[in-house]
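Deliverable D4.2, example record:
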Amino acid sequence: MAFKKIRRRELCFNPFDKIGKEWMLLTGGTPDDFNTMTASWGQLGVLWSRKVLTCYIRPNRYTYEYIDKGEYFTASFFGEQYRSALTFCGSHSGRDFDKVKETGLTPVEIDGNVAFEEADLVLVCRKLYQYDMEEKGFLTDDGIAEQVYGKEPYHRAYISEIVAAYVKE
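Output generated by the structure prediction step:
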């Protein structure tokens, strides 16, 4: 299946559904060495006069290593028929499993980055800024830190410019 590059301003979807309900695969690395993970947290918008995606990755995730060391990564969005593949990619580490083999997803190269042939939408992102979330940053005491983190490490946020958008042809 081929992809068609579209103008970023042509993107038209509900970001709450696209990220929070449909989820996305964040993929870092090269076509020869990459890893992917499912994410259901993120923001899309405008910052510094640029169209951006902000994503969050814990440092203990294998994909963190790939996205942290690279300049670019992709965010791939899929139809509901790929829910089990995304569930697998979000609950199994690439250190222990070959996610491509286990899910049947087909890696494709887009602008020198890895995405997946089965995706409906692929965003190619260039990292602009990163910061590490911390407990002291919470402004309310309504239990978010305890519920989400407990003893788990806090996320690193990556604010990234969406440099290209591709849809299935």
